[in-house]
């Protein structure tokens, strides 16, 4: 599968970069639209998203490089070649979340409510971004047979794209992408529930994505490792527990306390 949309000599536009950008732009637009429903300043949301994405990308790359240092130690300049792939979503989530938290704290805005606005769009962006891995020929599973892929009734271009270096591979990128899109639709439905509370959407996201990633990671052949453990699985366990504890704490509130679908009366000024 050609990783370039178009190429001029040694330079070109990669599918990986383009798909990440598309996911980001759609996500920002969705967050602003949902924020408008509660009267939240769209400039605040855009600026927060901008800095969170910038530091999220940096965090995703640093996270990946740390656990793959042997690949880059002979050519440190290649660390900056992020268009070639090699970013870890957990690193991006950690760095992006810290950035968003600090930004909200600066303007005295409820971070958890803002996180609830963002997580559906985040799942959509993740689902779109996984296709960048497809075009880069990465984030796949173990070797398999052509017959197995055909038995799944996959489009031919996906089967062709899973033929890498003389072997067919399990399209784990596709499994995660579809799971993210299903989760995205589910969160859109859940957030319309009348008595859903602030923090519930974020907690569901943490638990849902952690479960998906834990099982898909067990199928992948390019996992980041820490000793004999897959790093993504360890992080997934931690994030799932965070989400579970959050849900338990939220459930202790009264029925009408901290509702997500209420007017947001904080006045955000710049």
Beta-strand percentage range: 5-15%
Secondary structure tally, helices: 10
Major sheet strand order: 3-5-4
* Major sheet characteristics: 3 strands, antiparallel
Describe this structure in words.
It is built from ten helices and seven strands. The chain is 62% helix and 7% strand. The protein is globular and about 60 Å long. The strands form three sheets. A three-stranded antiparallel β-sheet has the order 3-5-4. With 270 residues, the protein is mostly helical. The longest helix is centred in the first third of the chain and has 26 residues, at 42-67.
Outline of the structure:
This protein is mainly α and 270 residues long. It is built from ten helices and seven strands.
Which keywords apply here?
270 residues; mainly alpha; 3-stranded antiparallel β-sheet; two-stranded antiparallel sheet; 10 helices; globular; disordered C terminus
